[in-house]
Amino acid sequence: MINIVSKPLEFEEELKRKIEFICDFCNTKPKIINGNIRNIEHTNLSYIEPHRVIIKGITFLAFNYSKILYINNLSNSIKIKDLEDNKESINKQISKLNKDKEDIKDEIDKKKKLNNKIVIKSKN
Questions:
Q1: What mean pLDDT value characterizes the chain?
Q2: Confidence (pTM)
Q3: Measured over all CA atoms, what is the biggest interatomic distance in the chain, rounded to whole angstroms?
Q4: Rounded to an integer, what is the distance from CA 14 to the centroid of its chain?
Q5: Beta strands, E only, the chain
Q6: Backbone dihedral angles phi then psi of residue 121, each to the nearest 5 degrees
Q7: What percent of the chain has pLDDT over 90?
Q8: For residues 69 and 80, is the Cβ–Cβ distance under 8 A?
Q9: Half-sphere exposure of 67 (CA within 13 A, CB side)
Q10: Can you tell me the distance from the alpha carbon of 67 to that of 109, in angstroms, rounded to the nearest whole number?
Q11: How many CB atoms lie within 10 A of CB 19?
């Protein structure tokens, strides 16, 4: 039987301080969820689950001692230095992502209404 052992990771204090400073500038509060190290017993396999920082509904992934934050997944990244240097731009990007999210929700609602109309007509 495979047994997975999970050990919590502490968020690096300097990284936490930088993120909180940036969020203070943008008048928002981050929700920080510590990552884990997951080991499969009796093997040399380990997985480091990144820390999650949720800001205005957007999930950022962070690793201790890294200078990069990942947006939603590991394929979209941004340097922390860019965040510090360009806080206004980041605030605009977050607003744009939230607007895109709302646009998608609106489009889904339209499709649901259209689907409901079709279902009602087909019942009649």
A1: 84
A2: 0.62
A3: 64
A4: 19
A5: 4-8, 31-33, 36-40, 46-49, 51-55, 58-62, 68-71, 77-79
A6: -65, -40
A7: 25
A8: yes
A9: 4
A10: 39
A11: 21
